[in-house]
Amino acid sequence: MGAVGFVVLFPLLGFLVLLTFGRRLGDPVAGWLGTLAVFGSFVSAIVVWLARLGNEGHPYVLRLFDWFSAGGLHVNVSFRVDGLSVAMILFVTGVATLIHLYSIGYMKGDPLYHQFFVYLNLFVFSMVVLVTANTLPLAFLGWEGVGACSYWLISFWFERPTAASAGKKAFIVNRIGDTGFLLGTFLVFEHLGSVSFSRLTAGSLNLSPDTATAIVLLFFLAAAGKSAQLPLFTWLLDAMEGPTPVSALIHAATMVTAGVYLMARLSPILALAHTADLVIAIVGVATAFVAAMAATAQTDIKKIVAYSTVSQLGYMMLGIGTGAYTAAIFLMITHAFYKALIFLGSGSVIHSLNGEQNIRRMGALKKYMPITTVTMILAWLSIAGVPPFSGFFSKGAVLENAFGDSPLLWAAGVITALLTAYYMGRLVYVVFYGTPRFEEVTHGHDPHESPSVMTIPLIVLAAAAVIGGLLNLPVSGFGFLGSWLAPVFGTAQAAYPMSAGLKDGLMATDAVVALLGVFLSWRAWGGVSENPALERKIFFNGWYIDAFYDRAFARTGTAVAEVADTVVDRQIVDGAVTGVAGVARLVGGAGRKVQSGLVRSYLLIMVGGLIVMLGYVLTVAAR
Amino acid sequence: MTIPGSWYLVVAALLFGLGAFGVLTRRNVIVMFMSLELMLNAVNLTFVSYARMLNDVGGQVDVFFVLVVAAAEVVVGLGIIVAIFRQRATVTADDISSLKG
Amino acid sequence: MAQYLPIVIMLVLGGVFAAGSFIGSGLLAPKRPHRAKLAPYECGIVPRSEPPERFPVRFFLVAMIFIIFDIEIIFLYPFAAAAGELGTFGVIEVAGFALVVFIAFAYLVANGALSWGPSRKQSYRVVEERLASKVPTGVRGE
Amino acid sequence: MIFANVLSQLPIALPAISYKAVAPELVLFGGALLILLVSATVGKRELPGLYRAIALVAALAEGGFSGYQLYLAQGAKASLAVAGAIAYDGFSAFAGIVVAAILLLAILIGPGFIKRIAGDGPEFLVLMLISAMGATVMAQGEDLIVIFIGLEILSIALYVMVGYRIGDGLAREAAFKYFILGGFSSAIFLYGIALVYGATGTTNLAKIGAFLALNVLTHDGVLLFGLALLLLGFGFKVSAVPFHLWSPDVYQGAPTSVTGYMAAMAKVGAFAALIRVFDIAFAGQIVQWRPIVVGLAILSMVFGALFALRQRELKKILAYSSINHAGFILLGVYAGTAAAISNTLFYLIAYAVIVVGTFGLVSIVQDSIGVSEGSCSLDQLRGLARSRPALATVTAIMVLAQAGAPFTTGFLAKFSIIVSVVEIREYWVAVVAMLSAAIAVAFYLRIVLAMFRGEPEEVEGERVLAIQGAATEAPARRQALAWIGVSLSLVFTVGFGIFPQPLLDLAARAHIVG
User: Fold this and answer.
1) Is D7 a member of any domain?
2) D242 preceded by cis ω (within 30°)?
3) Which residues on chain B are in Cβ contact (under 8 Å) with A600?
4) What kind of architecture, by CATH, is found in domain C57-141?
5) Chain B to chain C, count of Cβ pairs less than 8 Å apart?
6) Domains and CATH numbers, chain B
7) For D121-133, what is each residue's pLDDT tens digit?
8) Are D256 and D359 in contact (CB under 8 A)?
9) Would you state the pLDDT for residue D399?
C-alpha cells in the first residue's frame, strides 16, 4: 500500500519535468509526458486498491516525515489509505488520465501548450494530495493547490478579458471559503487537540453539538465555495472561460467535488451536528433545483453543462446533509464519468465548429460526428437517471436517503431529476438533431469527427457512464462501494429503516420521472427537426403536455432561469464580490491619499495615533 | 526657598511639548531639526529631575548617553540636510513630497 | 482622577505655553509692513520664489568633527573625577573607548576631512564633490 | 549635588564585564572598526574584496557566538552581565542568529548593487555591521537605556544607508523623511523611558519587573503613559499602523538592497526588544497594554493588506506587505505565551530571510530590466517570465512565500502565529488575521501575474538613466554574488518549509525563561 506514495509522486515528477524542460519538449511530447505521469499515478492507484482488497477494515497511513510541531500541535506529512481515499484517487487519476489524453488533441497548436500540461499535472498532484492527506493542514495544501491551478487554468487564455475576470472571481470566492477551512482547522485543533484524520473516527469524538455545528458550518463554507453551492456557485459558470478539458477535469469531475469529499471526510463531526446537516441538505437541494431551472434556458452549450454540474453538486450535498455519504460518493464517481463525458463531448463539438458554443448555431451534427453523438446520448441517459445507466443507481441512492430524512427534500430532488432529464435532452436534440445551422461558423466545410486521441476518452468514459452503476447495486451482495466505504463512515452514516416495498416504489418513481423527462424533451425538441419557429407552431397546435410544458418550463422556467441568472448571479453574488473589491479599492485609494508624501502630515497622523493611545490609557486602562 | 521637583518635570514637559509642536508646525527643516533636539533635551531634564527626586544616580548617567545619541543624530541629520540643500535651494519640508501615493 | 492631575496640567500647560508663545510673538512684535519693506530688494524685479540661502558646508564638517571630541569629553570628565577609584579597570575601559574614537578620527583624516584650509582648497573640493555626489555627509562624521 | 559628589559618596562597584555575553556585539563592531582602519591606512586605493571578507567573517563569527550562547543557554534563566544591563539567554542568542543570517545574505547581495551607485568604499559594509550591532544590543538589552542606545545605533546607521543614492532626489527625500520621523519617534520613545524611570525608579528591566511585582502602584498613570510612548517608538520601528507612514516612501526611495536589509534588521531588533520589555518586564501590566498592541496589530494587518491593493509600485507593495507582516508578528507579542514567543521568533527568522531574499531579487530584476533602484512598477515586470524565466520563477516563489504559501516557512510562520492566538482563545483576532492574509494574497498574486503575463514593455526613459548609472562592470558579474545570497534564502525558505522541525525546535528552545 506504500504505492500511494507513487500516486502522489508521479504527477509531481511530471510537473517538475515539464516545468523545467516543457518548452523544449514542445508539442506534442510535453502532452504525452504529462499524460504518462498521470497514467503512472492511475496504475499506482490500482496497485493500492488491489493491495487493499481483503483488508478494508483498517486504514493504512504512509508517514513520510514530521512536518512541524508547534506547541501541542503536531503535523506530519502522511497519506491515508482507506476506502474513501482509494475510491477518490482511483477515479481522480482515471478521469484525469483520459482528460490529459484528450487535451493532447484539443490543445494542439496553442502557443502555451506545455504550460497547459504543467498546470494540469500540478493540479492532479494537488488533488491527489488533497484526497489522500491524513492531516487537515496537508489537505489544505492540496486545497490551495487545486484552487491556484483552477485560477491559472480558468484565465489560461488571459488575452480574453472575460477569462481574466472569471479567474479573479473564482479566486475571490475560493479565498472566502479557505478562511472557513483554516478556521475550522483551528477549531478542530482547539477541541480535539489534533488535526489528524486518524483522530476523527465516528462515535469517539467528545464534542458538544454547538462546537460540532460551528466546525461543520465553517468547513461547509469552504466546501460551498469549492463545490459551487448556493450562493457561491456563480464562479463556476464564469469558469467555463477556460479551455474545455479544464472545465471537464476541474470544474466538473474532480476539483468541484473536493468540497463533497471534505464533508464526507469529516462525517464523524457531521454526525454530531444535526442543525448543520439540515443546512447542508437544504442548501444542496436548493442549489440543485435553481441550477437545473437555469439550465433549461441557456443557449451556450458549456453554460448548460455548467449549470448541470452545479445542480449535480447540489445533489451530492443533499446526500451529505442527509447522512448518505456512500450515496454522495457514489454519485460523485458516476457524475465524474458522465459529466466529464458531456464536457468532452461538448468540447469535441466546439472543436469541430471552430470554437462555436451557441447551440442555436449547431444542429444535425449526428451525421458528421457519430461517435460524439452516441457517447453524448449515453451520457444524457446516465445523468437523467434512466435505468440501468449509472445515474439511475447513484441518484436513486441519494433520493432514497433524502426521502428517509424528509419527504420534502425528496420531492424537491425528484422535480430536479425531471428537469435534469429534460434540459439534457434539449441539449442533445438541438445540437445533434434537427437542421444544420452552422454554415456561418464553418464557412461551407462540413464539421468533422474529432481525432482519435479525443474520441477514445469519450468511448472509455461512455462505457464507464453506462456501467458505473455496477459499483454499488442496490442488491445485497453487490453494494461494493457501500461495503468498501463502510469502515470509513461507520456509525456516522445515517440508516433509515425502510420497507423493501417502499424502496422499490422510490426506485420506480425515479425511473418514471427520468423517462418522463426524456419523453418531455423529445416532445418539446425532438419532434421538431426544422427550426425553433416550427416548434412553436406545434406547441400552439396543442398537445396538452406541450402546453403544460410551455407554461411550466419554457415560460416559467425561462423566468426562473432568468431570475437565477440575473438576480442571484449578477446582482447578489456579483454585487457582493464587486462590493468587496470596491471597498478594498476605496480603502486602497484612501491609503494613497494618506500617503501624501508630506512629512508634517505623517507626523500629525503619528501624533494622532499617540493621542488615541494616551486617551485610551487615561480613560480605560488606568482605572 | 526650595523648588519642588515636580516643577522641573512640568518645565520639562513644557519644553517637550514645545519641541513636538515645533516639529509639527515649522516648515523649515533646520528649525524642525532644532525642535527635535529640544525634545531630547527636555527628556534629559526629566531624567535629571527624576534622578534628583528619587535620589538615584542612574537617571543622571542616562543623560550622558542621551547626549551622545543626540550628537550622533545631529551629525547624520545635518549631513542629510546639507545634501538636500546642495541639490535644491529650498529648505521647506512641504516641498519634499515626490514620493507620495 | 486626582492622580492624573499633574499629567493633565502638564499637557494643558504645554499646549497653552506653546500656543501662547506663538500668539504672543504675533501680538507683541511691532508690525508696520508696507510693500517695499516686504520685498527682499527695494528695486528690480519682484522675485517669484525665495532666493537660495548661502550655506557654507565646511562649517558643518568642522562642527561634526568637533562633536566627536565633544562627546569624548562627556565621558572622559566623569572618568577623570573618579579615576582613582576606578583603577586599572577604568583605564582599560577608557582606553578602549578612546581607541574607537581614534579610529573614527583616523578614518576622517584619511578622507581629507581636516584639510579645509585655504591653501589646500584643491583637495577639499574633491571631498566636497564626493560628498555631494555619492556618499552622504553623515558617513564622514560618524 | 554635583555629579562628582555623588560619585564620591557612593562606593563604586566595578561591573564585571562578561565578554562572553557581549561577544556578538564585539565581533560586529570590531569588524566595522577593522574595515575602517584598513581603508584609512591604504589611502586612495579601495579593497572591496577584503572589506567584504572581513564583514563576512564578522557576520559568521557573530552567528557562531550566538549559536554557542544558544547552546549554553538552553532552558536556563537569562544570565545578566555588565552590571545587569545586558541579558544573554536563548532568546537573545536566537535573535543574534537571525541577525547573522540577515547580515550574511545582505553582504552577499548588497555591495554589488551599491557599487553601481557609490563605488567601492568601505562605508556601506561598516554601516551594515554597526547597524547589526545595534540590533543585537536591542535584543540583549536588559535596560531601557541600553535598548534605546541599540535602537539609535541601528537607526542612525540606517538613516545613512537609506540616503545612499544621495545623488537621487527620491533617495534624499527618503533619508530625510526617515530621519525626521525616526528622530521624532525616538524622542518620544525616550520620554517614555523617562516616565517609566520616574514611576519605577529604575530603567533596568529586571528591577522594573521586581518592583512592579512587589509594589502595587496607586498612581500608575505615569507608568502607563510611559508604556504608551514606548509603544509608539517600537511601533514606528516595526512600521505598525498608524506609525507606518514613513515606510512606503522610505522603502521606495532607499537602494533596494538597503530596503531589504532595513526591513529585516529593524524588525528583528525592535521586536526582540519589544518582547523583552512588554512580555517579560511589563507582563504584569498585560491587561493594560494588550488592547493597544492588538489594536496596532489589527490596523497593521488590515490596512497593510488593503493599501497595497491599489499600488502599482513594486517596492511600495512590498512595504505594505511588510506592514502586514508586522501586524502578524505583533499578534505573537500580543499572545505573549512562551509558545507564542517561540512562534514569533520563528516568524522573525522566516520573514527576515524571505524579505532580504525578495528585495535581493528585486535588485536583480531592476538591474536586469534596466530601471533605476528608486522605482519599479508592476508594468515594468511584464514579460519577465519570458525574458528571464529562472529569475521570474524564483521571485514568484519568494513572493508566494511572503503570502504564506504552504511548504514555505512563510506558511508555517503565519500558521503558528494564528495557532498562538487561537490558544489564548481570541477567535475574532484570528479571524481578522486570516481575512487580512486572504486579502494580502491578492496583491502578492498581482506581482506574480505581472511577471508571467504579457510582453516586456520598453521603458525608454528608464533605460537611459540605467545606462548612465551603470558601472563598467557587467551585470552578470555584479549579480553573481547576489544570486548566491538569493539562492541561500530560497533554499532556507523552501527547505525549512518542508522540514521545519529543526528550526521550530531551535525557536522553541529560545523562549525566555522567567
Assistant:
1) no
2) yes
3) 24-25, 27, 93-94
4) Up-down Bundle (1.20)
5) 90
6) 7-89 (1.10.287.3510)
7) 788 899 999 999 9
8) yes
9) 92
* pLDDT of res. B1: 52
Integer Cα distance of A465 and A424 in angstroms = 15
Task: Report the share of chain A in percent with pLDDT over 70.
Answer: 85
Tell me the pLDDT of chain A averaged across its residues.
Answer: 78
Bridge partners of A358?
A300
Q: Which of A613, A619, A623 would best serve as a mutation to test chain D binding (most D beta carbons within 10 A)?
A: A613
**Rounded Cα–Cα distance for residues A434 and A448 (Å):** 17
Q: What is the mean pLDDT of residues D88-107?
A: 92
Please list the ranges in chain B whose pLDDT falls under 70: 1-3, 87-91, 101
Is residue A68 within 8 Å of residue D410, measured between CB atoms? no
Residue D340 burial class via C-beta count within 10 angstroms: exposed 0-12, middle 13-18, buried 19 and up:
buried
**Chain A hits for D221, Cβ within 8 Å:** 617-618, 622
- Residue D5 domain-assigned? no
- How far out from the chain centre does Cα C47 lie? 31
Global pTM reads: 0.76
Q: What is the b/e burial string over D404-427, where b = at least 16 CB atoms within 10 angstroms of the residue's CB?
A: bbbbbbbbbbbbbbbbbbbbbebe
Contact B79, C137 (CB under 8 A): yes
Distance of CA A130 to the CA centre of its chain: 14
pLDDT tens for each residue of A243-266:
877 877 777 778 888 888 888 888
Residue D514 lies in a domain: no
Per residue in A361-385, pLDDT tens?
Answer: 777 777 788 888 888 888 888 888 8
pLDDT tens-digit map of D186-225: 999 999 999 999 988 899 998 898 888 887 766 677 888 8
pLDDT digits (tens, 9 = 90+) for D151-185: 999 999 999 899 887 777 788 888 889 999 999 99
Identify the burial level of B38 via C-beta atoms within 10 angstroms of its C-beta, where 0-12 means exposed, 13-18 middle and 19 or more buried: buried
Domain ranges of chain A: 544-621
Between β-strands D79-81 and A60-70, what pairing exists: parallel, antiparallel or unpaired? unpaired
ipTM over 0.85: no
pLDDT at A205 over 80: no
Q: Specify the number of domains making up chain D.
A: 1
Planar angle of CA C36, C37, C39, nearest 5 degrees = 65
Closest to A604 measured CA to CA, from B64, D389, D291, D180: D180
Nearest C-alpha neighbor of D374 from the set D198, D162, D208: D162
Q: Which residues make beta-bridge pairs with D143?
A: D204
d(CA A539, CA A516): 18
Cβ contact, residue pair B65, D156, below 8 Å: no
A139-178 b/e (C-beta count within 10 Å ≥ 16 → b)? bbbbbbbbbbbbbbbbbbebeeeebbebbbbbbbbbbbbb
The residue extents of the domains of chain C are 2-38, 57-141
The boundaries of the domain holding residue D434 are: 14-509
D502–chain A Cβ distance below 8 A for any pair: no
Q: How confident is the model at residue A601 (pLDDT cuts 50, 70, 90)?
A: confident
**pLDDT value at C79 more than 60:** yes
The Cα-based distances of A545 to A317, A416, A520, C129, D275 in angstroms read: 32, 18, 8, 96, 77
**B93 CB near a chain A CB, below 8 Å?**
yes
Residues of D in contact with A587 (CB under 8 A): 303, 306-307, 309
Beta strands at A73-81 and A60-70: parallel, antiparallel or unpaired = antiparallel
- The type of residue at A459 is I
Angle at D9 between CA D3 and CA D15, to 5 degrees: 85
Q: Which residue of D292, D307, D500 is in closest CB contact with A613?
A: D292
Q: Please give the grid coordinates belonging to residue A201.
A: 473516527
